[in-house]
# Entry
Amino acid sequence: MTSFAFGRLRVTAAALLLALPLAAAPLHTAAAQTKNEPNVEFEMMTWVEVKAALAAGKTTALFYTGGTEQRGPQNVNGGHNLMGRHIARSIALGLGNAIAMPVLPYTPNNASADLPGTIGLTPEILSAVLERLAEQAIATGFKNVVLMGDHGGGQPNSYTTVAEKLSAKYADKGVKVIYCDAVYSKANDDFGKYLETIGLPAGGHGSISDTSIMLYLGGGEWVRLSELPKAEGDPILPRGQRPDPTVPRKNNGIQGDARKASKELGKKAFDQKVAYAIAQIQGALR
# Structure
């Protein structure tokens, strides 16, 4: 079997194929590109357009990792990737000097026959792929590379390690590689705190936050509206507290309660992610 070396790690061709991005999907109504907005998506540009954009100063490449995994009975498995494309594109538009690269649709995770919606990588493979992609962007002519993710797997270790390694390697060429964690960790934490102030549970995987963003961006195409009134999972317990053995687990892929998800909450969460990312990236690249 063909394999490729990345530092000390060898990755099979099959593993690399897993990491290929999904084919470009149409943008949906909530964040659809208008005629007045520039094209900032690498996969929707020709090489001539990329070259012109680089010459015009769009020298920051945004790599956003998604993830293919079960998200409860109400959300489609590709939610991380679908949201990631919109988020990365909006960040690029907000920065004004960036291009959103194709979303990486696989991140560290493990498949399950009980909840068959997940296809995952290992952290080692993710690190190797991120390193390769970043170096390809640098070879293309980008001066800054930003690594971000919509799925917690591999964060922050894989992203931080690759960013630090490549920043040191290319420092003499004026190239920066950074890990933007605010779009995931800080944005999610702060949105959870906001939900508590309005009397809603923050929840976790497949719960109110990401279900709301998916409703805002994709509506009934991304969220099975018939399942939403029943989208309650196992509760998130306080640290150290064990589940009550007398209460049967739902084990439906939801951590918390998504029944109160809404497009309005989704817009707030989406806008917050974009704003946090823009602020962190601008600060890091000054």
Residues 13-26 have pLDDT under 50 and may be disordered.
